[in-house]
């Protein structure tokens, strides 16, 4: 993925909070809001995922690191799954880390949460080591040199420690195939064009993990399927399709652009905020890998 495409992807999906450079506090605050919505809309799989990693993780890990934490959805899920562990949340953005601490206080786990501001493109933070479990959700593919970061995570883990890498397999889907206006298949046509632009691109991490010295324990998929959709799905879908509309202007057929405009017009009866037929569909892949 080129830097340009990474930036487009980052603006569209809230990933890359670890890698992106030059973000101001206003942009980070907007991104944090989108990440919080993303967690609310897509969070149904997290319980299954953390339960699964718990079967592979060391018993009662002393310290856990969340690599590219964003607003802390993963950090908080790990704190709930492992109630005696210290959780270290790493992100380049102080705005994100402020959100993590606020959420940790709200959930009563602030005393076990430590935040570290660091840009992993500049190197692993010197004060993060001896951890038993590492988590990298939708962040590893955004760093400039993931193989180097994987080696640094490997070195930060204790022998027998576990790394879990999580990626979104495809862009989320919200609409029925026939949205009741224009031609059926609007969302699929959007996704086809976005795939050609490498939106949401990530590698199979198995060979990268092996080169970094890890032993892959298991790879598993997790479905995201919420019907009916969570209450604020319309808001999230509107943010999602706003970015799609801007990116695909000049690429989609005129009737598809007109349909997107209707979806984004809050006064239109067919708008995303007024629809009663939204669902949330998607999937994640997770790789569990152990340091020998």
From TrEMBL:
Family matches, as Pfam families: Methyltransf_25
GO biological-process terms attached to the record: methylation
Organism taxonomic ancestry: Bacteria, Bacillati, Actinomycetota, Actinomycetes, Mycobacteriales
Methyltransferase domain segment(s): 64-161
Region called Disordered, residue ranges: 1-27
Protein name from the UniProt record: Class I SAM-dependent methyltransferase
Record key words, sorted: Methyltransferase, Transferase
GO MF term set: methyltransferase activity
């Amino acid at each position: 993925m080129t830097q340009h495409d990474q930036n487009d992807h980052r603006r569209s999906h809230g990933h890359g909070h670890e890698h992106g450079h030059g973000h101001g506090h206003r942009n980070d605050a907007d991104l944090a809001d989108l990440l919080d919505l993303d967690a609310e809309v897509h969070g149904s799989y997290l319980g299954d995922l953390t339960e699964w990693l718990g079967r592979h993780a060391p018993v009662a890990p002393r310290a856990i690191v969340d690599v590219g934490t964003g607003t802390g959805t993963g950090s908080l899920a790990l704190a709930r799954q492992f109630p005696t562990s210290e959780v270290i949340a790493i992100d380049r953005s102080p705005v994100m880390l402020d959100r993590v601490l606020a959420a940790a206080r709200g959930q009563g786990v602030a005393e076990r949460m430590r935040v570290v501001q660091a840009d992993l493109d500049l190197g692993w933070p010197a004060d993060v080591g001896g951890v038993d479990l590492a988590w990298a959700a939708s962040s590893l593919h955004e760093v400039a040199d993931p193989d180097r970061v994987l080696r640094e995570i490997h070195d930060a883990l204790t022998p027998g420690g576990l790394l879990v890498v999580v990626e979104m397999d495809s862009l989320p889907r919200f609409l029925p195939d026939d949205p009741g206006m224009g031609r059926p298949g609007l969302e699929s046509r959007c996704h086809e064009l976005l795939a050609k632009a490498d939106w949401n691109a990530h590698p199979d991490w198995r060979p990268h993990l092996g080169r970094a010295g890890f032993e892959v324990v298991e790879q598993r998929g997790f479905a995201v399927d919420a019907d009916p959709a969570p209450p604020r799905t319309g808001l999230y879908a509107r943010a999602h399709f706003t970015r799609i509309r801007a990116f695909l202007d000049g690429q989609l057929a005129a009737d598809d652009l007109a349909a997107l405009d209707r979806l984004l017009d809050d006064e239109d009866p067919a708008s995303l905020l007024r629809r009663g037929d939204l669902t949330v569909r998607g999937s994640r892949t997770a790789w569990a890998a152990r340091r020998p």
